[in-house]
Amino acid sequence: MRRDGGADAAPREGRPATAAEDWPRVRDLLRAALERDPAQRPAFLDQACGEDAELRKSLEGLLAAHEEAADFLESPAEIDRMAAEVLGDAAAPALAAGSRVGRYEILELLDAGGMGEVYRARDTGLGRDVAVKVMRPWMTRDTARLRLFEKEARAAGAISDPNILAVFDVGAANGMPYVVSELLEGETLGARLRRAPLTVRESVECAIQIAQGLCAAHDKGIIHRDLKPDNVFLTNQGRVKLLDFGLAKLLHDPREDEAAAAAASASSDSNVMGTPGYIAPERLEGGGTDRRADIFGLGAILYRMLAGRPAFGGENTVGELSSTLTEQPPPFAADGDVPPRLQRVVWRCLEKRPTDRFQSARDVRSALQALAGSPSARSRGPRAAVAALAALAAFLGATVFFDAARPGSEPRAASIHQRIRSLAVLPLRNASADPDQQYFADGMTEALVAEMEQTDGLRVISRDSAAALQDANTDRAEIARQLRIDAVIQGSVRRVGPQVRIAVELVRAGTDEPVWNGTYERDVRDVFALQHDVAGAVSREIALVAHPAREHAPHAETRSVEAYEAYLRGRFYWNLRSTEAAPKAIVQFNRALELDPLYAEAYVGLADTYAMLGDMDAMPHADAYARAEAAARQALDLDPARAEGYASLGHLRMHAWRWEEADRLFGRALEIDPGYATALQWRSYNLASMGRTSEAVDAIVRAQQLDPLSVIINTDMAQILYFARRYEDAVAQCGKTLQMNPAFAEARRVSFLVRQRVHRDAEALADLETYRRQPDGGPGGSVGYAYAVLGRRGEAAAVLRELDAESRRRFVASYDFAVIHAGLGEADRALAWLDKSLTRHDPETMILPADPRFDSLRGDPRFALLLERMSLPRP
Q1: pLDDT(704) > 80
Q2: Which of 244, 255, 385, 810 has its CA 20 to 30 A from that of 746?
Q3: Cα–Cα–Cα angle for 301, 306, 307, nearest 5°?
Q4: Which residues contact 245 (CB under 8 A, 6 or more apart)?
């Protein structure tokens, strides 16, 4: 098991390596032994040395020598001098002071590790001090080792970032490969932790810089794979540097694994490379490795900094590995100073399954940056907040202009934190000259809402509700009153050629007091980071933190701007909810998938569109729902944490009468995203059909609270109250909904049904006539039923004839005929049409168990037999 910057030393040809020749490995084992209590060391030596008596004897001698040298671990030169005395000259440094490697003059030994030795040297050409890392000559005979040494140089040299050790030169002199890098003054994080603990603030700031270094590496397609405190360097200037890319892997390059495994197997009984306690579980299980393995390593380092102990322990290496696979780290002290939000970030990083972790280093960095700005992690006045925002803007490469609190004013973060707990994102105005860019402005609004929904402790009103009031030219005070919010975000999007400019402001809703504003300008290729930055800036301004339980924005799975644009166009058409626009939506979603076949959210868009076409009877139901099912499953295969995918599957299961499975899927969607109003909306219908009417009402009420001005959710609330036989409440709800949008035909349909139930026949008839004059108010089951129960039997019969004629041209649900015959009191015909409807599996049959229009048939045994065919759960 490798524990340092390179693979363990290989034996010389023809005989086992002596302890002196294998000094890098011995040194690692020595450090591992010293990290254990003296009482645990014999057992560790038994496991580490096995039958190697010489290795055991050497380690025992070194441990004894250590007892007489208190600074043994703190000085690499002292370590090697001690080793030379105990083991012989073979462990002595390979280079002497004053010798040269190329144009570099060796000054002193700085450190020694598994891949070689690091020296301070003088670059005689440029007149500066540098660090020179060399391999000992006898090591170079191992070609696998040599490849790892060279790969470390290539990997680090490919990355240019302040948080990655900078590589200046590579070469070979006298058969000795070397790498030249910047000279760092300071100590490793491991040495610092052995010397003294870090504060919470220091730990968070260190982790932010580690995450930034990982962002830079991952952007180059490089995974570190050996994150641990000894591979993190703390400079005297406060900079954190990632070291040792000896185990780094290029994404999508299996040859990297093969080469590294060959090097590891040369001297180890395990081909799992890395440091126990910091290796991700999927690597221990032999699974594939991606960026999320580094997220686990970062989490283990953060835990070590905050808790003062490793996340995973054990009496020996096997115990550490077993703990990593099967156990959770010990909880933080209940009376400690680690904030709960920070603890959640740590636990999210250390999830056993990669899909449950943060999905990128940027996500971790953003969560930690938000914490670093909150009062629970550090104290910041207005000047510090301004400086941090400016630094972040420069760091991300954006052009950012902002307006913050004036010097001398009260610390704004604390006061806003007390008051802003809810906000609405008003639709961003399309400031482009091209009106066709409206889809892009809508997409930016949706993305900003999705990003803000990840903020812990913040209630975010849906775009639809905010848009409803904005379209009515409602002032902000009235918006605040109706939506019960503290603040609004408003602004504009301007796109000119390849540049995108977003101007946003956060305004206190009740007083119009400006809280913050910013203007962000980026290349369209950086649109994803741009959305994240805007949301992050608002979160930091109100001193809240991104919630670690959900980190998915609608575009999270694609890096293709073209695919994202196609997705936005698809959603634009889908939101029109018409049979004319739906095919255009499908074209755009498929275009997005052509550009990026792994774009999960585009598959969700396809699933929603096909399901809508099936619900609208605009496409054969079996075909529509099968296509929707395939798309939803593909979305979840790509992203198992996609709430929308589970909700879409739940909707389909409900239509398939698989009630309990549908409920579990809706529940899973809401576990991932408790604020997903659509999942609650659909779940309410499923619960009503299962006979759980009080739970159905609770679900639709929660959906309405999340999206209070959504006309469709408010209409469905009236529908669910109708199913619950709470007719007066349903009448009142219909009145509220029609005030919001008198032209919404579906609300008018529910209104005439519920008014008839409370014997407001004149009002019901007036609603019915208004409905029939609307474009979507054609003949249907509800129209014929209403005429029938209102005593207008001739009109009801006429609707039946219209439907019969219409069915010769297009699909008409048998359920519509059954409803009208039930209203006319024709039980036999109603039951016959219901039998046909169930056989055809009409979408409308989903509501049969709850539908009050069939109450007159519920005492008929034939109706009970029909319900048995629907696999309803027993009460």
Answers
A1: yes
A2: 810
A3: 95
A4: 151, 152, 155, 156, 217, 222, 224
- Residues with catalytic roles: 226
- Mean residue pLDDT across the chain: 77
Handedness of CA 457, 463, 466, 470 (dihedral sign): positive
Q: How is 37-69 classified by DSSP, letter by letter?
A: -GGGHHHHHHHHHTT-HHHHHHHHHHHHHHHT-
Q: In angstroms, rounded to a whole number, what is the distance separating the alpha carbons of residues 194 and 119?
A: 23
164 and 222 assigned to the same domain: yes
Give the position of tokens 């290729």: 525
Token representation of residue 504: 């946003």
Query: Which phi and psi (to 5°) does residue 438 adopt?
Result: -60, -35
CB-based burial label for 558 (10 Å; 0-12, 13-18, 19+): buried
Q: Let me know: does 342 contact 200? Beta carbons within 8 Å.
A: yes
Q: What is the H or E stretch that residue 233 is in? A: strand 232-235
Calculate mean pLDDT across residues 234-262. 64
Q: Which domain holds residue 36?
A: 23-90
796 inside domain: yes
Residue 403 and residue 401: Cα distance in Å, rounded? 7
Do residue 718 and residue 787 come from a single domain? yes
Residue 179: strand, helix, or coil: strand
pLDDT at residue number 686: 96
| Predicted local distance difference test score (pLDDT) of residue 741 | 85
Handedness of CA 228, 230, 234, 240 (dihedral sign): negative
Residue 407's pLDDT band, with cuts at 50, 70 and 90, is very low
Amino acid residing at 244: D
Enter the tokens of residue 626.
């099968």
433-448 burial by CB neighbour count: b if 16+ within 10 A, else e? eeeebebbbbbbbbbb
Quote the CA–CA distance of 683 and 689 in Å, as a whole number.
10
* CATH code for the domain in which residue 509 is found: 3.40.50.10070
Residues 778 and 847 placed together within one structural domain of the fold = yes
Amino acid present at 406: R
Identity at 118, one-letter amino acid code: V
Query: How many Å apart are CA 314 and CA 44, to the nearest integer?
Result: 10
Q: Do 401 and 282 have their domain in common?
A: no
Confidence band of 690 (pLDDT split at 50, 70, 90): very high
Please name every residue paired with 128 in a beta bridge, in sequence order, or none if there are none: 123
Q: Is 232 helix (H, G, I), strand (E, B) or coil?
A: strand
Structure tokens at 540: 């930091």
773 and 658, same structural domain? yes
Question: What is the total count of domains within the chain?
Answer: 5
Q: Any idea what the CATH number is for the domain that residue 633 is in?
A: 1.25.40.10
Query: Is 357 part of a structural domain of the chain?
Result: no
**CA angle, 746 then 750 then 754, to 5°:** 170
Q: Are strands 429-430 and 455-456 parallel, antiparallel or unpaired?
A: unpaired
pLDDT score at 532: 67
pLDDT digits (tens, 9 = 90+) for 69-120: 444 444 455 555 555 545 544 455 678 888 988 889 999 988 765 557 889 9
Look at residues 488, 517, 546 and tell me which one is the last residue of a structural domain: 546
Q: Judging by beta carbons within 10 Å of its beta carbon (0-12, 13-18, 19+), is residue 809 exposed, middle or buried?
A: exposed
Instruction: Name the strand (E) or helix (H) holding 488.
Output: strand 487-496
Express each pLDDT in 753-790 by its tens digit. 999 999 999 999 999 999 998 877 778 899 999 999 99
Same domain, 56 and 122: no
Q: Point out which residues pair with 109 in neighbouring strands.
A: 119
User: Is the residue at 744 inside a domain?
Assistant: yes
546 has which bridge partners? Answer: 455
Nearest to 755 by CA among 742, 745, 768, 744: 768
